[in-house]
Amino acid sequence: MDIPADPTIEALLRKNAELLQALAQREATLAALGAQVDVLAKTVGDKQSEIERLQHKLQALIHRLWGRRSEKGAPGQLMLFHDDAEQEQPAKPDAAPDDEEVLESRTSKKKRKPRAVKSKDLPRVRIEHDVTPEEKICTCCGEQKQRFGEDVREEYDYVPASVLVKEHVRPKYACRSCGDGVVIARLPPVLIEKGMPGPGLLAQIVTAKYADHLPLYRQEAIFLRHGLELSRQTMCDWLHATAHHLTPIVLAMRRDLLRRPVIQSDDTHVMLQTNAESKGCQKAFLWAWTAPERDLVLYEFEVTRSMTIVDAFLADFTGEVVVADGYPGYNPCQKRGVKRGGCLYTHDATCAKPRRTRVRRASCSSTSRCSTPWKSVPRSSDSMLKLG
Description:
By secondary structure, the protein is α/β, with parallel strands linked by helices. The chain has a domain at 196-245. 33% of the residues lie in helices and 11% in strands. It contains 8 helices and 10 strands. It has helices at residues 7-66, 84-88, 99-107, 199-210, 216-225, 232-245, 247-258, 307-313; strands at residues 172-173, 183-184, 262-273, 281-290, 297-302, 321-323, 339-341, 344-345, 358-359, 384-385. The chain has a 6-stranded mixed β-sheet. The longest helix is centred in the N-terminal third of the chain and has 60 residues, at 7-66. It is elongated, with a radius of gyration of 41 Å. Mean pLDDT is 77; it is low at 75-91, 99-105 and 345-388.
């Protein structure tokens, strides 16, 4: 007996078959997409490795071109990182060199230079080591041996510095009969009136502090080893007095510097000890001024970084160009017709300092990053001078 077909059941069966077919297609699509994801992930990994390798090669090339001279590689030196294709290439057999080439390579070797020690102007102490009188008698004939030459060996020695006391003695003269008319010689001129330091001691303190960067507390210990008890407060007072006597020289250097066509300027902050109990130290600034064609550097110490300092220094400037960073305090000098020289530009936008590659037409900040991107700087800028 046949059961009559139910339309609802048949519709459900057809719907179930369609859903099973759609589910199978979805699973096939997901499997294909998963395979594509794996392929793309592998491609991304390969590309990332390629980018890192190229970055390493680029940094190595930059270091070779723009690094320190002592760390530069030779022009023919191989790179550290090579392409895989270059590494897989078989090495070509070297051709047999000719006799002339071999001779040239042997003769072109760099000869070792003797040690360059400049000792012509140094004082010399001759110490002669002679043989005994018995050794001067010939053992064969008994005659006296004659001197015909000498062997000299140079030795460099160091005589430690010493501190001495100079006594300036001035005899007094008077008439024994009348007891009047006392005469005494005049003292030689001194830098510090009623002071004890001589010119050599003052020169040593100034040179050690500002040329050798030796603080006063270290000099205090050094002088103590030589038997001189000298406090750093006393040396500080002597430095102040010495600076007063050197003021005419500084003013002459400033006049010479301001007559140059191009001067360079920069500043750095230093910590200044104050007597205020609340602060203890405050930020001060040390300005440096120099001229490219002169071996002359002028320093100025200021407690602020106000643009009035730059304006006051450049008030008598008769040159044309001031090379400085992007500090706005140099802007007033442009109103007097002085041009601003920019900073050097490097292709690395994240550089710590502008370096040797190109000269920018815009100023650069003295902080850790460049203040203005290269592409945003206008090509025609009247306020900046291209130096290279």
